[in-house]
Amino acid sequence: MDDLENQVKEFRFIPEISAGGVVYKRDEGEVYFLVIKRNQMNDWTLPKGHRKKGESLQETAIREVEEETSISTYPEKYIDTTMYYVANEKERIVYIRVVFWFLMKPENTNISKKPDKEIAEVKWVKYDDLLNILSYSSDKYIIKKSLSCI
After folding, report:
1. CB of 99 within 8 A of CB of 20?
2. Are strands 93-106 and 48-50 parallel, antiparallel or unpaired?
3. In total, how many domains does the chain have?
4. How many CB atoms lie within 10 A of CB 88?
5. Which 3 state secondary structure label does DSSP give 109?
6. How far apart are CA 72 and CA 103, in angstroms?
7. Contact present, 104 and 22 (Cβ < 8 Å)
8. Can you give the CATH number for the domain in which 49 is found?
9. What is the pTM of this model?
C-alpha cells in the first residue's frame, strides 16, 4: 500500500497480536541466532506467530519457536515490540501485526526440524553473517537490540 494513512476510508484495519523468539547460543566465542526460511514468502526471518486465546505472550513465543524450529526454549528477557502492516486488497483489509519479542535460550541446540509446507529451512547463523541474511529491517533491528542484552 502506497499511502496507508489515506486507506482508512477504503479498508478495514484489523489488529493481530503475535510473539516471537530471538533464540541465541554461544559457540567458541561467537554468538549464533536461530533463523527460519519460509516457503511461501521465500524469506529469512525470526520465528514468530499469532497468540492463541488464553495464551500469554511468553507461551506464544515458546510454542511458535518450537513449532517452526523444533527447538525447545525458555524466555530470558522481553526485548521490544515491532509492528508491520499486511494488506489484503481483494478483501479490503489491512492487518496491523504487533509482534512482542523475547530473548530466548535453547534447551538444546540440535535442529531436527524437517522441511514442511511452511518452513523450508532452519539454521543457526553467526551474528556477523546474520544481518546480510535477514529479509526484514524489523528483524535486523530486533537482532541488534538483542545483542546488547546478551
Report:
1. yes
2. unpaired
3. 1
4. 12
5. coil
6. 13
7. yes
8. 3.90.79.10
9. 0.91
Tracing cell 477504503 back to the chain, one arrives at 10
Of 109, 104, 133, nearest to 28 by C-alpha is: 109
Query: Quick one: pLDDT at residue 104?
Result: 98
Q: Give pLDDT tens digits for 30-57.
A: 999 999 999 999 999 999 999 999 999 9
Whether the Cβ atoms of residue 12 and residue 105 lie closer than 8 Å to each other? no
- For residue 75, the model assigns a pLDDT of 97
Using CA atoms, how far apart are residues 79 and 76, in angstroms rounded to an integer? 9
In angstroms, the CA 92 to CA 141 distance is 30
pLDDT digits (tens, 9 = 90+) for 55-106: 999 999 999 999 999 999 999 999 999 999 998 989 999 999 999 999 999 9
b/e map 24-51, b = 16+ CB within 10 Å = beeeeeebbbbbbbbeeeeebbbbbbeb
Range of the domain at 96: 4-147
Mention every residue, 6+ apart, whose C-beta is less than 8 A from residue 122.
34, 35, 36, 37, 68, 69, 70, 71, 111, 113
SS3 141: helix
